[in-house]
Amino acid sequence: MYWINDPTMWAGLFTLIILEIILGIDNLLFITIFVEKLPMPLNNKARITGLFCALVMRIVLLFSFTFIISFTTPIISFAKYNFSARDLLIFFGGCFLLFKASSELNERLRDKEDKINRKSKTAKFWSVVIQIIILDAIFSLDSVITAIGIIDNIHLMIIAIVISIALMIIASKGLIIFVNNHPNIIIICLVFLFMIGIVMITDSLGYEISKSYLYISLGVAIFIEICNELYSLNQSNLFKKKFFYNNNAKYILQILNYERTISNHIYSNSNFNCSTIDIMNLQDYQIVLLLLQFTQRTVNSIMIPINYADSIAMYSSKQQLLSLLKSTNHTNLVIVGDSLSNIPIGIVNIREIIKQYLNKKKIDLYKIIKQPLIFFEKLSLFDALQQFANTNISFAFVIDQLGVIKGILTLSDIINTITTNVVISSKKFDLRYHVKHYNNSMLVNSMMRIEDLKLYIPITIDKIRSYETIGGLLMSRLQKIPVVGDYIIIDNWIFEVFEATTIKLKKILITYKFSDIKNNYY
């Protein structure tokens, strides 16, 4: 073990390991291509078996190195060429490599139909292993001769060969995965093996060609292939982005063109929702349409009219206040100056009233009243949402151009407009507006907004109007408080009062004009 303290031996060992790996690259490529033809469970087994056979063969040849050296002695002469046993082995090995590389290239460059037929016939395990062993014998010869020429210590030779084979076993699995994921690399490797076969034949004839040229050409070819792969990947991503944007643009254009194309649609019992867009389901369509309309809608399109809000005078009695608390479903009350003027002056959160009541304090609305935000009725929902976000207030009064309070708006109203007002299916209904679908008809709450109704049916409504709900639409057209049975017709749609009291509309039945209302519903 004197070599442990000898730096020259260590230098020779590292040099030999590197050379063994370089000399084993062509062997590794051949094994990678051969085992790729096997089924997946046998793939890994054949790879390890082939490299293990290469290790055993090289160690056996090392122990008989005196016999190996004699392989270089000429034994046959032909014309001006003298052939040793080594030359003959390399010559026939080169011919075998040429045959296998060319046959593999021919197989992979066949027509698609032939490829499918050949893929159905998997190679046999032992036939692949035997071919690997034959190539191992040829490639091991150069490896062993190189080892003998660099180091004269057989132990170091064995260590170098074992380390190089172990590294190749570790690297081979990743190489196989890489080759399988990039089929074009297989073609490059087969061409490389074909060139190695030619070099082996010329070497046996005495014309030595440096393998460094082969390795450089292989590296350049792989570099070019990597560039092509990156280019193809970038082009594929660009195509996907363009396809995505073009599709989205097409969907949005179809949505914007919705009202014009809808007139050609024949409404059937099974498709009341009237969508002519086959590439998008109704839910996706309405979500996109809702978002497109969001920036164009104003606060007066979703506000609650002030006369529908729960309000109470500032100095109401305790009994009046508690009675209102029992009946209300809201979390805030509108406070008015007095019951006669009915002018809103602020809001009170119901929780603050309950706190005063539970603490057995006198209920004083003046102490807990808060000032809401003030929105102009034509303010966009997007701007209103931004103002809510910039303040800690989630309640607002909506005024007209004369400063008269027309309604109230909360942050939750805007959120509900974005999230909850989407039809899920024809069998379900929107809890906010009680939308129910029937044969060619649907029943809606009279408080449903006109803009929200357009998500269900295409109707043309005046842009300048004094109403925002379906109930307001009927009262505006009929110029009275409608009763059950009253109806109007807009764009082939019949709006009929289905349920009402003497002072308030409740349910409206909307039916396509060509349907028989009585037969469909009553």
UniProtKB/TrEMBL annotation:
Topology term for the membrane: Multi-pass membrane protein
Domain of life assignment: Bacteria
Keyword Aminoacyl-tRNA synthetase tagged: no
Family matches, as Pfam families: CBS, CorC_HlyC, TerC
InterPro entries: CBS_dom, CBS_dom_sf, FAD-bd_PCMH-like_sf, FAD-bd_PCMH_sub2, Integral_membrane_TerC, Ion_transp-like_CBS, Transptr-assoc_dom
Main location: membrane
Molecular function GO terms recorded: flavin adenine dinucleotide binding
Annotated keywords: CBS domain, Cell membrane, Membrane, Repeat, Transmembrane, Transmembrane helix
Record has ATP-binding as a keyword: no
TM annotation in the entry: 12-35, 55-76, 88-105, 125-151, 157-178, 185-207, 213-233
Domain CBS: 368-426
Subcellular location field: Cell membrane
GO annotations of cellular component type: plasma membrane
Record family assignment: Belongs to the UPF0053 family.
Protein name: TerC family protein
